[in-house]
Amino acid sequence: MTLEGDAELQDLYRDVLIDYFRSTAHKGVAEPANLRGRGANPICGDEVELTAAVEDGRLSKVRFSGHGCVISQASSAMMAEALEGKTLEEARKLAGAFKAFMLEGAPAAALPEELDEVRSLDGVRRFPVRIKCSLLAWNVLIQALEERQS
Amino acid sequence: MPLDVEKIRRDFPILGRAVRGKPLVYLDNAATTQKPRQVVELLAHFYGLHNANIHRGVHTLSGEATKLVDRARGKIARFINAPKPQTIVFTRNTTEAINLVARAWGERCLKAGDEILLTDIEHHSNLVPWQMLAQRAGAKLCFVESEPDGTLSAETARRHFTARTRIFAFTALSNALGSVSPVGPLAALAREYGALSLVDGAQWVPHRPTDVQALGCDFLAFSAHKMFGPTGVGVLYGREDLLEAMDPFLGGGDMISEVWLDRATYNELPYKFEAGTPDIGGIIAFGAAVDYLAAIGFEDIGRHERLLSERLLDILRCEAEVAVYGPRRIEDRGGVVSFNVGDVHPHDVGQIFDAEGVAIRVGHHCCQPLMRKLNIPGTARASVYAYNTLPELEAFAKALRKAKEFFRVTSAR
Fold this sequence. Notes:
The complex is a heterodimer of chains A (150) and B (413).
Chain A (H helix, E strand, L loop, with lengths): L5 H7 L2 H8 L12 E7 L4 E10 L2 E10 L2 H14 L4 H16 L24 H22 L1
Antiparallel strand pairs in A: 1-2, 2-3
Chain B lengths: L4 H5 L8 E2 L2 E2 L1 E2 L10 H14 L9 H20 L8 E4 L2 H16 L5 E5 L8 H10 L2 E5 L9 H5 L6 E7 L11 H10 L3 E5 L11 H4 L3 E5 L10 E5 L1 H6 L10 E4 L4 E3 L13 H17 L1 H21 L3 E4 L10 E6 L4 H10 L2 E2 L1 E3 L4 H7 L4 E5 L6 H17 L7
């Protein structure tokens, strides 16, 4: 299927993405937090700060702050939502699945059900320069998990 | 005489292509311009019929290539009214030209406690090399703050000169705001205080007549690719006595006079600063680019760009919830217009424009400190050149309205 112009745009900026972008449900800072990460995309200046509370090995509260485009902010919001209640190992696996989806062309159907909403980023894969926007929060997460482990 | 834009456009095949199903409207000229046939053809002609390495070759091709590079150097010297061709040093780009001065002049002449004066609207390329130098030399960085409209003023700048100011490096035309600097008065100020002046001319030289002797600057840096030339070629103009006194920048072939195992003496200007094989084809093609610009003439280019900039500003100022940055007065502006649409991130704005075939640049434009000062993550930026047309700006206007609709930007929100 080749889309052009408006159809392609609608596919990139699906309504659900705009909703997540506008949503404040997971915006802010988790206090107290024992998992923290920070990342920026030097090319576009987008910034994401991730804070999370880990209780009994599970992410009980996940928040993000910073600024960025619809794609990076919506992706951050969906990630925060998907992570709450997950163990650190599960979080790591979700990050792996997300990166496989965005970078390796893994089919949307292969995403675990926790990442149902993330399927709405499907259209981003058609815009290679925007893929990095969707990855920022997840890369921050991966780094934060690695730092916590070491 | 109005510019014969249709004639110019015929020299740029790329302007006839479609992007995402729409005719391309190229408004990213501050990043790089398109290249006319004449430049591309000369590049192909050089590689097709004259290619050889320059200097030291006794064979005919090498002699031809050397002569072509010399001729291009001469053209570029005349283009900015440099007193001698050897005051033109070829670099890779503006960034490398500035780094050359920061290294070759800075490391020899700067002492601990000396001051490097910059402004708060500089491109990272006219900031970071000086930060690196200041760190190595123990020098101090000082900054002239831009006026509220993004221009630089000589009166404000004067307050920042001290007995320890050794160099004042500033942009002639801001790539982020489009503001035009009073280059002559700023250079004169540096002279008055016994400091050197370095002008970042990347956005100026392609659009305004440049006379380094009349401007009175000590160094001027600019890039070929922003003025119809190929990527990979930049220029540092430097006052001859300063270049003579400076140490080399990079070491290697071509920049030497005599070499022993443990030491070397250096070549004369400009070769002292041109180590290794340069972008020979690119330099020669750059010569064709300045010929092309000179044939059109800056008077007509200037008038045309002003017409386009005025229309761009009109379009943007008529839309509610659109913020325009930079000077209000058209006299203080070049053909660069920065804006934001409501609270929509510039990248998302740029995406809508792209879907309309309109190429603009979005982000911090390599001016993060300035964006921080303006308290914005970035801007969307349209920049015009001789081949842009008023009907193209109507496509821009349509894309702007579409971006507002798409992200539901209304004054009510």
